[in-house]
Amino acid sequence: MNDAALKDLKGKTVRGGIVTLSGQAVKVLLRTGSVMLLARLLLPEEFGLVGMVSAVTGAFGLFKDAGLTMLTVQRSTISDAQISTLFWINAAVGAMLALLSLSIAPALVYFYREPRLFWITAVMSTAFLFSALTAQHQALLQRAMRYSTIAVIEVLAQLAGIIVGVGMALSGFGYWALVGMAVSEPAAISVGAFSASRWIPGRPQRGVGIRSMLNFGGTVTLNGLVDYIAYNVDKILLGRLRGAEVLGLYGRAYQLMKMPTDQLNSAVGWVSFTALSRIQNDPDRFRNYFLKGYTLTLAATVPLAIMCALFSEELVYVLLGPKWNNAAVILRYLAPAILAFPMMNPFRWLLIARGQVGRNLRMSLASAPLLIAGYAIGLAYGPAGVALGFSAAMTIMIVPMIAWAIEGTPISSRNIVRVVREPFLSGIVAVTVTFGARYFFGHGIAPITRLLLGGIVLLGSYLWMLLYVMGQKEMYLDVLRKIRSRPEDGESGRE
Q1: Which of 71, 89, 184, 377 is 20 to 30 A distant from 10 in Cα terms?
Q2: Which residue, 239, 258, 240, is CA-closest to 391?
């Protein structure tokens, strides 16, 4: 890659990251608004019913693209014939997943002892068809680094889903409002991706190098399945042994924990993955790109974790309402996991960008038993115990998983320590200042006022420490300069 192309890639990556983060920020606001509305319109049991289904059928969603969209982005070159063949494979897989989801509906009714799950499962199965039919269209947009287009599609699709869900809830449809939202959002994304990419698949062909692609995609999909099982056994166990209401409480707390971090990790992860795939054969530039993305992810996540730990009661009261107060302690115990996710997840993107999907799979297979053990130990103490067991397992895994991931890569342990040091020291100072301010505020003011004041103190002390004391101001100013350097173009994603 020549210097001009590298400079262009760097500009696209930075601008794409900001565009994607901005889109994700809008999605977080929309999702937060929908959570606040639906939590007040529906009962915990109704959330639990849909959670019982999605905890199981959500695993099928990992197969909807068979890991082939990631492959479309990761390959340095890919032909139209290959993409067309991948499209038809995705379509066939989506149809099979919809039928499989429908076929297990009676089993879910029997397992959970809840007859209402049959039709919930039947309707939600249609989402697999929508997702599969435009999986390659979305991959082409990602490959072409058309981040603005992707952000608009995702925001509008989420808005459409929220309108459907809230409208149905206001009309008295109960848990069907959640089902409607779950189906309408992927349907809207499919329409948007097809319209934006304007790519029409050709006929599937043999002899175009699909076999090696399927091996890559199969490993990525198996990896995703192992991760999904590991991160959803807690919900299955709580739903089976404690019922829909308890699962509803746990699920809402888990969503509050994951909602901002998922959006952040998704935004930075996909942009970094696309850029890293382009420079995977240039170790120095690969290292620099990864470490900058890793720095930004950690810096943005630390205050979120602190906020959930110190202000869990206020967050639950303001976002969900008083009938969800029992979810506050669950959210507090989940707070350590908020930091664990961004510390480990970026290394999965690093390995896949380098084509090391086998090591990624082995890491998942090693971590799954530890996570399940954490759930099992905590289960005797209810949803709060499960949350604490989950966070404990995640924390224990951080150091060994990072060491395993960076072995043989351009990233060293010294690089990681240097990146982690600034946001963590800034976080420690912010915790001290905010905890003192929280004690000073007392409990005599309204929860929303405590939340706002605490957030201002937390963010102010954290940014002051990070930007000025730790000397990170110039790095972020450099990012801003790159954002304003030149607008993103819409070049083709195929070569």
Answers
A1: 71
A2: 258
Q: Which residue has the tokens 């099982």?
A: 229
Nearest of 262, 189, 259, 186 to residue 30 by alpha carbon: 259
Question: Do 238 and 250 contact (CB within 8 A), yes or no?
Answer: yes
Q: Which two tokens stand for residue 98?
A: 């919809």
If you ran DSSP here, which 8-state letter would residue 323 be given? G
Q: How many whole angstroms separate alpha carbon 147 and alpha carbon 141?
A: 8
Q: How confident is the model at residue 19 (pLDDT cuts 50, 70, 90)?
A: low
Q: Angle between the 244-278 and 283-310 helix axes, to the nearest 10 degrees? A: 160
Tell me how crowded residue 495 is: count the other CB atoms within 10 A of its CB: 9
Q: What percent of the chain has pLDDT over 70?
A: 81
* Alpha-carbon dihedral sign for residues 13, 19, 21, 23: negative
One-letter amino acid identity for 346?
P
User: Which residues have CB under 8 Å from 103's CB, separation 6+?
Assistant: none
Q: Is 178 helix (H, G, I), strand (E, B) or coil?
A: helix
Distance CA 463, CA 466 (A): 5
Separation between Cα atoms, residue 464 and residue 430, nearest integer Å: 9
Which residue would you say has higher pLDDT here, 174 or 267? 174
Q: How far apart are CA 315 and CA 66, in angstroms?
A: 37
Contacts of 260 (CB under 8 A, 6+ apart): 28, 304
Instruction: Give the tokens for residue 38.
Output: 């639906």
For residue 357, is it left (φ>0), alpha (ψ between -120 and 50) or beta? alpha
b/e per residue 223-254 (b: at least 16 CB within 10 A): bbbbbbbbbbbbbbbbbeebbbbbbbbbbbbb
Angle subtended at Cα 464 by Cα 461 and Cα 468, rounded to the nearest 5 degrees: 155
Instruction: Tell me what the mean pLDDT of segment 392-396 comes to.
Output: 94
Q: Residue 122 class from Cβ within 10 Å (0-12 exposed, 13-18 middle, 19+ buried)?
A: middle
Closest CA relative to residue 122, chosen from 57, 64, 178: 57
Q: Which two three-digit tokens encode residue 122?
A: 């039947």
In 104-146, alpha helices (H) = 105-112, 117-124, 127-133, 135-143
* Dist CA 319 CA 257 (whole Å): 12
**Rg, C-alpha atoms of the chain:** 22
| pTM, full prediction | 0.66
- The strand ranges marked E within 212-339 are none
| Cα(272)–Cα(436) distance, integer angstroms | 37
Span 289-324, pLDDT tens digits = 888 888 888 888 899 899 999 999 999 998 888 888
